[in-house]
Amino acid sequence: MRCRKCGQRAAINMRHHRLSLCSTHFKEWLIDQTQRFIEKYQMFTPSDRLLVAVSGGKDSLSLWDILWRLGYQTVGLYIDLGINGGIHYSARSRQCALQFAEERGLELDIYDLRSEIGRDLPDLADENRRGKEKPCSTCGLVKRYVMNRSAMKQGYDALVTAHNLDDEAAILLANTLDWSLEHLSRGLPVMPAGAGFAKKVKPFCRISERESAAYSILRGIEYMEDECPYSAGSKQLFFKHHLNEWEDEMPGVKLRFYKNYLKAMEAGAFPARQDSAEILSLQQCGVCGQPTTADGLCVFCRMTARK
Amino acid sequence: MRCRKCGQRAAINMRHHRLSLCSTHFKEWLIDQTQRFIEKYQMFTPSDRLLVAVSGGKDSLSLWDILWRLGYQTVGLYIDLGINGGIHYSARSRQCALQFAEERGLELDIYDLRSEIGRDLPDLADENRRGKEKPCSTCGLVKRYVMNRSAMKQGYDALVTAHNLDDEAAILLANTLDWSLEHLSRGLPVMPAGAGFAKKVKPFCRISERESAAYSILRGIEYMEDECPYSAGSKQLFFKHHLNEWEDEMPGVKLRFYKNYLKAMEAGAFPARQDSAEILSLQQCGVCGQPTTADGLCVFCRMTARK
């Protein structure tokens, strides 16, 4: 395989794009693609201040690197959940994020769950979950809460997450099995600000996991390679596995699935949910001021107060 | 495992219904379920004359048997496509359908493609397909055409097909990957009559393949067990295989997928396509009078005239 641009030995062959590129041209290409999607979906402009959610993994560090090279104004946000489970998961991820920011002279905010509320995510999940449930739903709740609050408090123009095509396709597939109109109407690359929620954008929504991994490797970014110790057996991994099997059989199916979904949304497949009862009945949490459907305290404040 | 109704040894355990039944109670249950869905989706009543598409396989013979036992007025339609491929596929299927009808004193219409147009499906597909394409799309076209024309010509109140839950879920999954609004808006248990099309109904849409197979075995129906020789490697089998893997992991997922889709349709997903440009521009074929989007001849008449 040869690079289509220069004829040198290719570093990556992207079957679904019918495109092979060498290391230099692949890195250039991925930066261009990311910029293209930022513009196409009107995510943000160079004058915007962006809060980038950084986990220390390949996706968020590759994305942050690209946004930095493109000249965007970014600050990183690392949420230390205290998940260590024998492999020092959070400690090592945090170290990758810190080192990355330091090497580039970028600012990284750290939210440390234990310092803030007195316990780690596994403790919190133990208090909340019934039976053998995984801590993933508590984790998602905490991360969404902290990301939104940080973006709102400090007046960022957008909250950037590094969800890639594989993530988006797997979530979409899971939501499609349930035909949850509420969830299906929210799978877009941009969710506008409103009702106490920051604008949320996903510049990597059409970049595959494999492409973002290749970028971080070819760029020499040191990232946390291990998966979260709780992710084994998760529904998301299950759907990713099946989508990978489909991709082998029908190259491009993941991208087609996601792009056609976006087209269907544009064509009015799911009548907009902006005016749904849930949004209209939002209130402010009495403690933190964040939006909540509950009376009085939001779920996060109730959960973290309880002890 | 014991039958929930009588405590005898169960003949089948349906995990997704959390229900085990003996042979007698399972047969009773499947008949009741079928009647329930006929009523729920307002498919037809005892005064309607029904044309039942019969392939000679487990689904169509089980369904026909149940409709007969429920006292509906049915005539079967067998389409002999002349697919023999070493295993005498069409000849043996036809024999199963004939024997079934004879044993019950039911009327079976036979449409023999070779007698009607002078060649078999494999010939027709060879003339039409480009490269290595499977004959499945030509076959689907011929069957839809013949079924509709037969139902319209003889004034039947509804055309009944034995699509089961596995079929419907696999088609739905394939259409969802493409997010084809046109196709997604047509996956309902009942498609009303109109614009030259007969009313189409699927009383087995919520009955799994395994349940319909169990019914035909426990009832002693002799059906064609082989799959069509062209089906190997088909996309539909591919999606069925994956849905079966999901069903093992999450019992009930197929039924949930299909039922939630129906709910979403009711809630206004995929705004009705009845007034789509395609439907509005339908014309009558100059030869057979069937509806067509083409000027002059319909696809079937063009295809079968060409030689």
Question: What kind of sheet is the major sheet of chain A?
Answer: 6 strands, mixed
Alpha-carbon Rg of chain A, integer: 20 Å
**Shape assignment of chain A:** globular
What separation lies between the terminal Cα atoms of chain A? 59 Å
Widest sheet, order of strands of chain A: 5-4-3-6-8-7
List keywords for this structure.
two-stranded antiparallel ribbon, six-stranded mixed beta sheet, 13 helices, homodimer, alpha/beta, 11% strand
Task: Tell me the layout of helices and strands.
The structure is a homodimer of 307-residue chains.
Chain A: E1 12-14, E2 19-21, H1 23-40, E3 49-53, H2 58-69, E4 73-80, H3 89-104, E5 108-112, H4 113-117, H5 121-128, H6 136-153, E6 158-160, H7 165-178, H8 181-184, E7 190-191, E8 200-201, H9 209-218, H10 235-249, H11 253-266, H12 277-280, E9 283-284, E10 291-292, H13 299-305
Parallel strand pairs in A: 3-4, 3-6, 4-5, 6-8
Antiparallel strand pairs in A: 1-2, 7-8, 9-10
Report on this model:
The structure is a homodimer of 307-residue chains. Chain A is 47% helix and 11% strand. Chain A is an alpha/beta fold and 307 residues long. In chain A, the strands form 3 sheets. In chain A, strands 5-4-3-6-8-7 form a 6-stranded mixed beta sheet, with helices on both faces. A two-stranded antiparallel sheet of chain A has the order 1-2. In chain A, helix 2 (58-69) crosses helix 9 (209-218) and helix 5 packs across helix 6. The radius of gyration of chain A is 20 Å and the shape is globular. The A-B interface holds A 176-181, 238, 242, 245-246, 249, 253, 256-257, 260-261, 263-264, 267-271 and B 176-181, 184, 238, 242, 245-246, 249, 253, 256-257, 260-261, 263-264, 267-271.
